[in-house]
Amino acid sequence: MLRNDLCELISASIDSLIGTEDFPNTAHRGVEITDSKSPEHGDFACNYALVATKSIGKPPRFVAELLRDALLAQNSPLVSEIDIAGPGFLNIRLSPTALGAYVQWVLTTGTAFSRPVKSRTQRINVEFVSVNPNGPVTVGSGRGAAFGETLCRVLIAAGNEVHREYYYNDGVNSEQMRMFAESVRSYVQQLPFPEKGYRGDYVQDVAARLMHAPPDANVDWFQEASQAMMLEKQKEDLLAFRVRFDTWYGEQSLHTSGEVKRCLDELEQKGVADTKPYRRVIKFGKGGVVNEVVDEPQTDSSKEDDEDDGDAAPTVDDVVAPTLWLRSTKFGDDMDRVLRRRDGRLTYISSDVAYHKDKFQRPANADKLITILGPDHHGYIGRLHAVLAALLRSGADTEENNRAALELAREKLEVLIFQIVRFVKDGKPAPMRKRDGNIYALIDLIKEIGVNAAPHASSTEQAEIGADVARFFYLMRSHDTHMDFDIDLATKQNDENPVFYVQYAHARICSVLDKAAEAGLRAAAEPQVEHVREIALLKKILDLPNEVERAAQDYGVHRLATYAVELARSYHHFYDACRVVDAEEPETSQSRICLCEAARIALQSVCGLLGVRTPERLERAESSVS
RNA sequence: GCGCUCGUAGCUCAGUGGAUAGAGCGCUUCCCUCCGGAGGAAGAGGCCGUAGGUUCGAAUCCUAUCGGGCGCGCCA
Asked: CA of A483 and C1' of B59: distance in angstroms?
């Protein structure tokens, strides 16, 4: 690929210099090139001389001159001119005649050209969305869905094997699900509505479909029936958002199989869980310094006498089993966590232990787990690492072994937190949970965008348009930054919408290629790339593998959305300056057809990663009708 | 209090330690005899929150500080 080929060329030049009089063996080796910002600085810039000046012991401009001469001596067909500028930049101008081969390469490789040169082959489990089946997927979770799913596509494009996973708490231990079932039941059986019950139309929708319930149906029955329904609804909504999972994993299965109990026994044997009646709390100061370690004696919190009884011994009235503590403070957590409550019920953390053990089987022998969580879950990270570290620790219960286990856990499990999304409509924030108990569902956002952006399209087409726009909007911003989702921009002002800008570039290419075919023009066998805007477009196209590589490395998938806009812009610039279909210049036309096709492939490739369609034509918005 | 995160154009946000900090929206103009004008060109708009430090060079790295958001349950 272009960039790598250039880097290798420069590396070879440096190698040829090393050991000569002015170039000691200790000279710096790494080579980086960047795009030039303005055309008068050539096509690429190399800052080697600036970086290496110290290790060589000569002034940067002197080093730059040596490097330039060495580069020119290689007589590469790629390079036409090299200038030295500013403090010692090497400005490299490409030779147009050598670029056609790269166009050809894109055409023959197809959308797979986006695969990075250095491909990775890790087996990775990515868990995302994972909201409990007590309501539809909200617009808030939509960000996690878009981010997680595109991250999966990027990781796959970079050569990894990826397993998409969704985890939900469906056990009878889940108080949320319990309350949801109670709420549904109260509608069906005309019982008093529970105090903290779930309101909202979707609860009544579920209830309406469960009117056939046997008269003696209890909460368990309702929980099973209603969560099955909500799961179906979630699957359906996510599918409309082009998100599908390889595994839907229910917590209850871990209890049913006895795996949770087995794991707890294992932890007890290892000495990282016990029933001693205290909780250790570590108070951290600035920079993670341990300020204070307190072992709080356990009191009976189920007795609500909150008058001072600081050192009262636990009463044992309703104690079925002693509290089982995970000593997670051994593994960097700031307090020990409860695995089994005093009444014998197990907490969600206990199932997390069994779950994370099992997770490494998907894909088989997984190298890494990635868990994507919402902004309200970042306090969860330390807990998860502690759970995994407790599982992974080998050897005795020593500080050294525990620290090593924590380090391993942090390496094996990456927890990514996406930040909150604020929805703005009519210039005002639109709440995700409304006062009447209804929530702002992802599927409603998709439909709303589609209806407004394309009022005359069919409802299925509207849903597709809504998914295009919603995915793109979520992905435009870095996942770890707070973002505003401007619904007005996503819908009404669709003329200025970046999604349509990108899709329009694709439709325009298709239109141009159609015109070219009508004129009897064919693709050139050996395309030439000469015009500045042709070169700029090709450079942008060839950047895609680098963008994929970076995104797979640091999870910055939002840069692909930025890239898509830039690529579209490069095409529009090219289109503006370079006429493609011109019967009087058939050779130029044929070369440009190749470039158009390469641009089309790049657009399809990046949109494929973003989960955005590339239609061959766009219907005109009604606003353009006067 | 502690932790995570963000402060960049009027607004929403990009920005790999590099040259004169970018885009979209909004504002002022211009360009269809021409492959789709959902496009292109030009202009105005900035002490990159503040103060130090690291070095040839800092929006970017470090420290401090101010300001917003979120989180710190035997809820998940």
From this structure: 19
CA–CA separation, A592 and A586 (whole Å): 10
For chain A, the straight-line distance linking the first and the last C-alpha, in angstroms and rounded, comes to 48
Query: Is the confidence at residue A304, as pLDDT, over 70?
Result: no
- Which nucleotides along chain B are within 7 A of a protein C-beta? 2-7, 12-16, 18-20, 22-26, 34-41, 56, 63-64, 68-76
- Give me the CA A141–C1' B70 separation in Å, rounded: 15
Per-residue burial over A79-102, b if 16 or more Cβ lie within 10 Å, else e, is: beebebeeebbbbbbbebebbbeb
CB A558 within 8 A of CB A477: yes
Q: pLDDT of A405-464, one tens digit each? A: 999 999 999 999 999 898 888 777 788 777 778 889 999 999 999 998 888 899 999 999
CA of A427 to C1' of B26 (A): 14
Over A52-121, what HEC string results? HHHHHCCCHHHHHHHHHHHHHHCCCCCEEEEEEECCCEEEEEECHHHCHHHHHHHHHHHHHHHCCCCCCC
Query: If DSSP states are collapsed to H, E and C, what string results for A299-318?
Result: CCCCCCCCCCCCCCCCCCCC
The first and second tokens of residue A283, run together, are 């108070």
Query: Which two structure tokens, joined as six digits, stand for A204?
Result: 């009544």
**Contact yes or no for A206/A143 (Cβ under 8 A):** no
Cite the DSSP H helix spans in A361-485.
381-392, 399-412, 442-453, 459-476
Q: Contact, A392 vs A405, CB < 8 A?
A: yes
pLDDT value of residue A624: 39
Contact A491, A65 (CB under 8 A): no
* Both structure tokens of A109: 């490789």
pTM: 0.94
The reply to whether A557 has its C-beta less than 7 Å from any atom of strand B is no
What's the helix, strand, coil split of chain A in %, to 5? 50, 15, 35
Establish whether the CB of A11 is closer than 7 Å to any nucleic acid atom in strand B.
no
A344 beta carbon to strand B: under 7 Å: no
List Cα–Cα distances, A214 to A12, A188, A438, A621, in angstroms: 79, 10, 28, 52
- DSSP state for residue A133 in the 8-state scheme: S
Taking alpha carbons only, the member of A509, A497, A506 closest to residue A454 is A497
CA atoms within 13 Å, Cβ hemisphere of A372: 27
Cβ within 7 Å of strand B: which of A 237-296? 251, 279, 284-288
Kindly report, residue by residue over A168-182, the tens digit of the pLDDT.
999 877 888 999 999
A576 touches strand B (CB under 7 A): yes
Q: Establish whether the CB of A507 is closer than 7 Å to any nucleic acid atom in strand B.
A: yes
Query: Which pair of structure tokens corresponds to residue A111?
Result: 């959308």
Strand B proximity: list residues 391-420 of A with CB under 7 Å: 417, 419-420
Amino acid at A406: L
Residue range A311-358, pLDDT digits in tens: 444 444 556 788 999 999 999 999 999 999 988 889 999 999 999 999
Q: Is the CB of A594 under 7 A from strand B?
A: no
